[in-house]
Amino acid sequence: NNSKLVVSLLDYGAGNVRSVRNAITSCGYTIIDITEPSQINDAQVIIFPGVGSYHSAMEVLQAKGYDAALREYLSKDRPYLGICLGMQTLFESSEESIGTENGGKAPSSLPGLGVIPGKVIKFDDSCRSVPHIGWNGTIAHQVSPAMKYMMSEDAAKPNAEVYFVHSYYAPITSENAPWVLTRTTYEGQEYISSVQKGNVVATQFHPEKSGKTGLNFIKGFLESVEDGTLSQTTPIPINPNMHTQLVKRVVVALDVRSNDDGDLVVTKGDQYDVREKDDEQPDVSTGRGGVRNLGKPVQLASRYYTEGADEIAFLNITSFRQGVIEDMPMLQVLEEASKCIFVPLTVGGGIRSYTDPESGRVYSALEVASRYFRAGADKVSIGSDAVHAAEDYIESGGKKTGLTSIETISQVYGVQAVVISIDPKRVYVSSPDDCIKHVVVPLDESQAGPNEERYCWYQCTVKGGREARDICAVSVAKAAEALGAGEIMLNCIDMDGQCNGFDHALMKAVSSAVSIPVIASSGAGNEAHFVNVFKETNVQAALAAGMFHRKEVEIRSVKKHMEENGIRARIIS
Ligand code: 1PR
Predict the structure, then answer these.
(1) ipTM exceeds 0.95, yes or no
(2) What is the tens place of the pLDDT at every residue in 278-323?
(3) Catalytic residue, candidates 11, 55, 67, 84
(4) Ligand 1 center to residue 315 CA distance, Å?
(5) Domain covering 6-235 assigned CATH 3.30.230.10 in the classification
(6) N or C: at which end does the chain have fewer Cβ atoms within 10 angstroms?
């Protein structure tokens, strides 16, 4: 593309817009950054990827004087694409503007840009997981040139799934109905998933994280800005009986560490032990085998993106040893990965506050996380530090300090950006009465303990399974949710690398105790394990590592098997 069109990006510095940049660039367009209000009027086209909370977004727009300039730009029907909060801020107001910054006590209702009638409200979490995270379809209300490469060819079917992550939504009303470009259904709730009137377009979904479909949307939008056709939309008959569905996600995890030669490799453990058991040349001093090497992080992750992974997680598994702020290789992995991978990227390992031993400088968990977000991560996953935060929270009788990594990061980047990685081990007991402090779950016969125990509790560990704590997985999950986590990645050390399927008892216990989404992890060995965990528990995603790294099973065959068994998956062509 030799386009002359230059995209003006409104990045107010609140989060990761690297992926939006990468997506625009990969469609062949150049970008300039808006750094002062006067540039708004001069723009050929503006893309505004809102990040963070509604309140903080409006606060920054006001403080920098962008709000008035934007209102004027929009009133002249100039080309515009808002993404996520960039769509929500077009409405009159949002429930989210009730300042959670002040513990929800001080309402501070900053108005939105007020271009579209209506208020953005929160999903009811009494009957569905909130946030709405993942891949869902869209149903067109208008035919738009922006959608030319992503509209379903079959009018009776929704468009291909795109990636959403939000707790608040804009309901369709009679006043804003003419704006609706597409709608989406989340567990019975219909809402506006994109809008367009004239040259003003906005999406609740993240096109920059929606794989090929999302890139096609950006391409369709920018091409039609360029050839002046963008505003040529036509309404289409609305079928109120058509609905979309959030699909179950297939996630791939890459456990990353340096091997003994100092190269960063993807490795994979057996119950968290990542060293070769039958190494012909074990280390002479320790007698231990080398670190299992299953490939290069970015290369492997790109392969999984092309093969249809819905999400990719990089876990820095030796982060407890060194400070991550200096861990440039891991930051580089993120930077490189986000250039070619357009699905959500999570990074975990070492997200905590850290004191540099040389300078004595203290880096807060928020600073550490910010480095990763700027490098291209969409979510951070917190392991050990979440266990400690949960312990303190419970011990204090449920008091929030506002200072934990979970609280500080979710306040700035939103709850959806904070995943908690739990690494529990089973502790078998003969009867629930043997352990009153922790949540004890029944086990079926095949899972019974070494002495035929038919119950267990799941003891949390820190430092990659090396240290066990006196707290169970259910308690950590509940405390983390209360502190502001948006999702739980639930491992199980006993099942890790065993290829015997996921730990259903654990998945059920945790997913029924929290309302945030749970990702099942550890133990997948074949396609049927995914179907089983989705049928028998309420988890929203399932993660595997070893079976994909060893090329034993392909992502597309997992998804095919899911669809054949009535579980909706995102199938890519
Ligand atoms: O405690 O915040 O620094 O985070 C450390 C992170 O590193 C945690 O997310 C922890 O789970 C992870 N981690 C630490 N040590 C290991 C290890 O293996 N020695 N990996 C480790 C945990 C869990 C999954 C794994 C699944 C699926 N790996 O990533 O890939 O169990 O595997 P499978 O499908 O092959 O069974 P902090």
Answers:
(1) yes
(2) 777 777 777 788 899 999 999 999 999 999 999 999 999 887 666 5
(3) 84
(4) 7
(5) no
(6) C
